[in-house]
Amino acid sequence: MGSTLLMALGLMLILEGALPLAAPALWREAFRRVTEYSDGQIRFFGLASMAGGIALFALAR
């Protein structure tokens, strides 16, 4: 299980780094916009992201 967790973490880091590598100006603008959201909006996006990840994980099993 440990190696699977490390592989998942590595894949997440690869995907997270793809946009700043490919389009740094777009990434910077998107990040700037996110800083203007309220705490509730950021929490909602975090919750939606987690729910989507759980759904994908359940589909993959």
How would you portray this structure in words?
- The protein has 61 residues and is an all-alpha fold.
- 90% of the residues lie in helices and 0% in strands.
- The chain is built from three helices and no strands.
- It has helices at residues 2-22, 24-35, 39-60.
- The chain is flat.
- The mean pLDDT is 92.
Descriptive keywords:
61 residues
Mean of all residue-level pLDDT scores? 92
How much helical structure, as a percent, in the residues?
Answer: over 70%
Distance between the termini: 14 Å
Strand content: under 5%
Query: For the report, how would you describe the main beta sheet?
Result: none
Q: Number of DSSP helices?
A: 3
Radius of gyration: 14 Å
Spell the H/E element sequence. Answer: HHH
Derived structural class:
mainly alpha
Q: What is the β-strand count?
A: 0
Uncertain segments are: none
Shape: flat
